[in-house]
Design brief:
By secondary structure, this protein is an alpha+beta fold. It is built from 4 helices and 9 strands. The strands form 2 sheets. Strands 5, 6, 7, 8 and 9 form a 5-stranded mixed sheet that branches. It has a 4-stranded mixed sheet with strand order 1-4-3-2. The chain starts with a strand and ends with a helix.
């Protein structure tokens, strides 16, 4: 079985957050979702557990970061093309997301970022496969 990653993110309004990611074309695994948690499927092995803040608090003794003021993480996703980067970022901004950072364009690598409704920062990056092979 391949190793998987589950990124756990606190959310203020689960339905708003689910609606946002649904507009971006993502689906949810109902087997790992309930009224306090939604399992966002990013790929076959990558998931984001979107957890209401009261439920999230049950998993930590620390305070939950206020992502509108503090960056707790930047979640970076790869894209197949520059166009895919733009489509995802533009859709996020049109669906209730907000800008995070300026676009990055190094020619061989292109990325844009946005904040989801809970202010978590998501970065979408494309890298030229030829540049990746040259690094290997």
């Amino acid at each position: 079985m391949p190793q998987m990653i589950f990124v756990n993110l606190p959310v203020k309004d689960l339905e708003t957050t689910k609606g946002f990611f649904g507009k971006l074309g993502f689906s949810f695994n109902p087997q790992f979702s309930d009224e306090t948690t939604a399992c966002l499927v990013i790929s076959d092995t990558i998931f984001a557990m979107l957890i209401t803040e009261p439920r999230f608090k049950e998993f930590t003794k620390k305070e939950i970061a206020d992502a509108s003021k503090t960056t707790e993480a930047i979640i970076a996703l790869s894209a197949e093309s520059r166009e895919e980067v733009d489509v995802l970022a533009d859709t996020a901004l049109a669906s209730g997301g907000s800008p995070a950072n300026e676009p990055m364009d190094h020619g061989f690598m292109y990325g844009r970022s946005f904040q989801d409704p809970d202010h978590h920062i998501w970065e979408v990056v494309w890298m030229d496969p030829a540049a990746v092979q040259a690094q290997g």
